[in-house]
Write a structure and sequence with these properties.
InterPro entries: Glyco_trans_29, GT29-like_sf, Sialyl_trans. By secondary structure, the chain is α/β, with parallel strands linked by helices. It contains 11 helices and 8 strands.
């Protein structure tokens, strides 16, 4: 693997779940890829000059090169509650937790979920992850109706709202349990996080506004927001999804897809993970999205490597790390 410096937080608490993912990973072929102490989220503790000087060496989602220190500091300093630093900040308060294992459903937007009847099964998990154009209304039988975590970048969220408005995606899901996790690509994400937390207009940049953003509801509070750490995204690229384009002059346009970051984040935090709506080798049988009104074949772009991601999901399923939904009659 490429030699990289990652922040090393304290080791996570030992899990009470008897056969959690971390115990299975160390017995699998993935044991050398996995770092138990990688930081998944960033918050106020990380807003230091030392961290800025280290992370400004990396561009895009992999660091802070394209964001000035004041913007980082203003945004991250608002993420100063324990809820911002923990993925499952409400676990101890959940009245319905039946055992010591945190079971997660990670729901992609793939057409394989159309007419899958997986909605009830998805809803029965402790937490449900969704990303980008997660259209729920009208598709509950296939995809469920709960959203514990909505994962996005400002760019992917706005693009989804523009592209899928016709099928009912008007913005991120909103519910009492829903948390919002930014995958920050550049300063737009930090500026939106600040405006949403403080309920003020976006004060600068391309998304500058006259009114506070309402994507997440009104006055939602800082406890609802989390932000992926750039070290985590870089680690996923370097160890799990190193693509051929990274050896070319076009390397700067590539990053793991939002769905891939979502699923790998769940693998690094949950005890059990079931993945639905992710690409499988028979993907040509299915439309691009479960909500497509007409059949749209999957289109490949250079900024993500969906075939590489598909192989990773297959390998993780085969190794017993995740349970991958592969279509009706194939599980």
């Amino acid at each position: 693997y490429i030699k990289q410096m990652y922040m090393t937080p304290p080791p996570p608490p030992k899990k009470a779940c008897p056969n959690n993912i971390r115990k299975r990973i160390v017995k699998s072929s993935f044991k050398d890829k996995f770092l138990e102490t990688i930081p998944v989220l960033q918050w106020s503790n990380h807003a230091t000059e030392g961290e800025y000087n280290r992370l400004k060496n990396y561009a895009g989602a992999f660091g802070w090169q394209n964001v000035d220190f004041d913007t980082i500091k203003e945004s991250l300093n608002l993420l100063n509650s324990s809820a911002n630093s923990q993925m499952f900040d409400d676990w101890d308060q959940r009245p319905n937790k039946m055992n010591s294992c945190i079971c997660c459903a990670v729901v992609g937007n793939g057409g394989i979920l159309n007419d899958s009847q997986m909605g009830r099964e998805i809803n029965q998990h402790d937490y449900v992850f969704r990303a980008n154009g997660a259209v729920v209304k009208g598709f509950e039988k296939d995809i469920g109706n709960r959203t514990s975590f909505y994962i996005f970048s400002t760019n992917t969220m706005r693009n989804s709202m523009a592209s899928y408005r016709g099928v009912g995606f008007l913005g991120p899901p909103q519910s009492k349990e829903t948390r919002y996790i930014f995958l920050p690509d550049h300063d737009r994400d930090y500026l939106l996080a600040k405006a949403a937390i403080l309920n003020i207009p976006i004060d600068r940049g391309r998304d500058k506004s006259n009114n506070p953003p309402t994507f997440f509801g009104e006055r939602v509070g800082r406890e609802k927001f989390k932000v992926f750490h750039p070290d985590f995204i870089r680690y996923l690229r370097n160890r799990f999804l190193w693509a051929r384009i990274l050896n070319s002059k076009h390397r700067d346009i590539y990053r793991p897809s939002t769905g891939a970051v979502m699923l790998l984040a769940a693998i690094h935090t949950c005890d059990e993970v079931s993945a639905y709506g992710f690409m499988t080798p028979d993907y040509t049988k299915y439309s691009d999205h479960y909500f497509d009104k007409k059949f749209h074949k999957v289109v490949f772009y250079s900024n993500h490597d969906y075939r590489l991601e598909m192989q990773l999901w297959h390998d993780l399923h085969k190794a017993g790390i995740i349970r991958l939904y592969q279509g009706r009659g194939n599980n």
